[in-house]
Amino acid sequence: MAARALWAVRQPVQRLLASSAASDGRGCLHSFSTATQRTAGEDCGSEDPPDELGPSLAERALKLKAVKLEKEVQDLTVRYQRAVADGENIRRRTQRCVEDAKIFGIQSFCKDLVEVADILEKTTECISEETEPGDQKLTLEKIFRGLSLLEAKLKSVFAKHGLEKMTPIGDKYDPHEHELICHVPADVGVQPGTVALVRQDGYKLHGRTIRLAQVEVAVESQRRL
To answer: What is the pLDDT of residues 162-182, one digit of tens each?
Structure first.
């Protein structure tokens, strides 16, 4: 009876101790988990600011770079527009100079030709005013003097402006300088294929042929059997 009564008393005590131990264990676990969460939260909190500041700094850097590039584009655009305007101005000035050269390029040559015209006019006036009727010899002498003076002046003008008369007699026929009129039998001492006679003089301007000389070219005569 006494043993049974003792067992009956121990059972509630053991149950109470077991429940107390369980509650203490749960409390420790709860405290540990809470502390762990706080530590993790603090760690996460300490790492969050860099994550938030990182993109902000990157965005600022991109914005600054975009502004810089936009300024460079604007600067290049202005330079390009100025270059186009300068090129157009140069083109217009060049075109104007070319047109003036076409119009006034022979101004100096024309000025010298006017002097030739003056000589011809004075010669004509002198012959018509001073020559007596019937005096043909005096008239011819004045005409000859006037023409000689006119020819000398023309040669001077031509030489001044690089205009040269070709003298192709005896030269080998050249289709770039000579215009063939006909063939003639080669005389004694004349080489076949050379210019034997000039029908019309040719001229060169600064070495470039501007008018072909009309020529007759000598060929070897055929022997009669």
So the answer is: 999 998 999 999 999 999 999
Q: Which residues pair with 194 in a beta bridge?
A: 172
Give the pLDDT of residue 225: 34
According to CATH, the topology of domain 163-219 is Nucleotide Exchange Factor Grpe; Chain A, domain 2 (2.30.22)
Name the residue ranges covered by the structural domains of the chain: 163-219
Q: Which of 78-87, 104-113, 160-169 has the lowest mean pLDDT?
A: 104-113
What DSSP line would sit under 124-167, residue for residue? Answer: HHHHHHHPPTT-HHHHHHHHHHHHHHHHHHHHHHHHHTTEEE--
Q: Over the range 75-110, which residues count as b (16 or more CB within 10 Å of their CB) and which as e?
A: eeeeeeeeeeeeeeeeeeeeeeeeeeeeeeeeeeee
